[in-house]
C-alpha cells in the first residue's frame, strides 16, 4: 500500500489517499479516506497507470490553488454573457473553455432552462460530465473560470511529468483531477 496525506501538523489528517494491490482481483485499488470513511475511487490493472492516477488524484486533492479574486469580482459584476466572454478573453487561454458550444478538452458553459446555466466537460466517447447545474449566469461563469484554470493546470502537470499513455486513460486522469 501507498498512502498520501496533505502536508500539515495534524497527526491524523482529515483526508488521505491510498493505493493498494488487491491480490484476489489482481488490480490496484485507489481509495479516498475522509474522516475515517473509506471510498473506492477507481481500480487499475496496470501498475504504471495506478501510480499515475494516485499522483494526479493526490495533486487534485491536496494542492493549494489560488484564483484571482479580482477576476472573480469582475465576473460576478458582469451584466451580460458578452461581458463574461470579454472577461474570459482577457484573462484565460480560449483552448480551456467554451461558451454554449460542446467542444472536447474544454470546460463548457451550457445554457439550461429558465435563464440558468450548466458547467460540464466531455468525457470518454463525448459523454457529458456535469460539474455544476442550474446556476445563474455569473455564478456558473465563476465555476467555469475556476475549472478552466484547473484544466490548464492538469495539462501543465501532464506535460511536466511527460505522461506516456493512451487517450482513454488520459480522460480518466482528467476526470480524477477535475472532479477529485
**Shape label:** globular
**Pairing-aware structural class of the strands and helices?**
alpha+beta
- For the secondary structure, the number of strands is 8
Report the average pLDDT across residues. Answer: 94
Quote the distance from N terminus to C terminus.
20 Å
In short:
By secondary structure, the chain is an alpha+beta fold. It contains five helices and eight strands.
Features:
alpha+beta, four-stranded antiparallel beta sheet, four-stranded mixed beta sheet, 180 residues
Describe the structure.
The chain has 180 residues and is of the alpha+beta class. 40% of the residues lie in helices and 27% in strands. It has helices at 47-62, 69-76, 81-91, 137-160, 167-179; strands at 2-4, 15-22, 27-34, 37-44, 97-99, 107-111, 117-122, 128-135. A four-stranded antiparallel sheet has the order 1-2-3-4, with helices on one face. Helix 1 (47-62) runs parallel beside helix 5 (167-179). The two termini are 20 Å apart. The model has no long low-confidence stretch (mean pLDDT 94).
Architecture blueprint of SSEs:
Elements: E1 2-4, E2 15-22, E3 27-34, E4 37-44, H1 47-62, H2 69-76, H3 81-91, E5 97-99, E6 107-111, E7 117-122, E8 128-135, H4 137-160, H5 167-179
Parallel strand pairs: 5-6
Antiparallel strand pairs: 1-2, 2-3, 3-4, 6-7, 7-8
Amino acid at each position: 500500500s501507498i498512502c498520501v496525506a496533505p502536508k500539515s501538523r495534524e497527526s491524523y489528517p482529515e483526508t488521505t489517499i491510498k493505493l493498494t494491490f488487491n491480490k484476489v482481483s489482481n488490480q490496484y485499488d485507489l481509495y479516498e479516506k475522509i474522516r475515517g470513511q473509506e471510498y473506492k475511487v477507481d481500480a487499475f490493472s496496470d501498475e504504471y497507470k495506478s501510480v499515475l492516477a494516485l499522483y494526479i488524484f493526490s495533486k487534485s486533492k491536496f494542492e493549494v490553488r489560488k484564483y484571482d479574486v479580482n477576476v472573480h469580482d469582475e465576473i460576478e459584476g458582469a451584466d451580460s454573457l458578452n461581458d463574461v466572454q470579454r472577461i474570459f478573453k482577457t484573462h484565460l487561454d480560449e483552448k480551456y473553455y467554451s461558451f454554449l458550444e460542446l467542444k472536447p478538452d474544454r470546460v463548457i458553459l451550457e445554457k439550461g432552462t429558465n435563464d440558468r446555466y450548466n458547467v460540464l466537460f466531455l468525457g470518454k466517447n463525448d459523454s457529458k460530465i456535469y460539474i455544476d447545474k442550474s446556476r445563474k449566469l455569473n455564478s456558473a461563469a465563476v465555476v467555469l473560470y475556476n475549472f478552466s484554470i484547473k484544466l490548464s493546470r492538469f495539462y501543465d502537470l501532464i506535460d511536466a511529468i511527460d505522461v506516456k499513455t493512451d487517450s482513454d486513460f488520459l480522460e480518466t486522469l482528467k476526470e480524477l483531477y477535475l472532479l477529485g
